[in-house]
Amino acid sequence: MEQIIIHVDMDAFYASVEMRDDPSLRGKPLIIGAMPNERGVVATCSYEARKYGVHSAMNIKEAYRLCPNGIYMRPNFEKYKAVSAQLHEIWGEYAAELESVALDEAYLDVTETAGSFEKAREFAYAIKRRTQSELGLSCSVGLAYSKTAAKTASEEKKPDGYFEILTAQSFVELMTDRDVRALYTVGARTAEKLGNIGIHTVRNLRDRQKDVIKLLGKHGEMLVQMAYGADNRKVTPRRPEDARSISREITFQEDVSDYGLLNDVLLLLAICVMERAGRYGLHGNGVVLKLTYSDMKSITRSNGSVSCDSAYTLYHEAVRLLSALPKKSVRLIGAGIYDLSGNENRQLSFDDITEAGNAVCEQSLAKALGEIGVRYNLDFAGNLEKIYRSDILHKTVEYMRKHRK
Question: What is the second-level CATH architecture of the domain 240-403?
Answer without folding.
Answer: 2-Layer Sandwich (3.30)
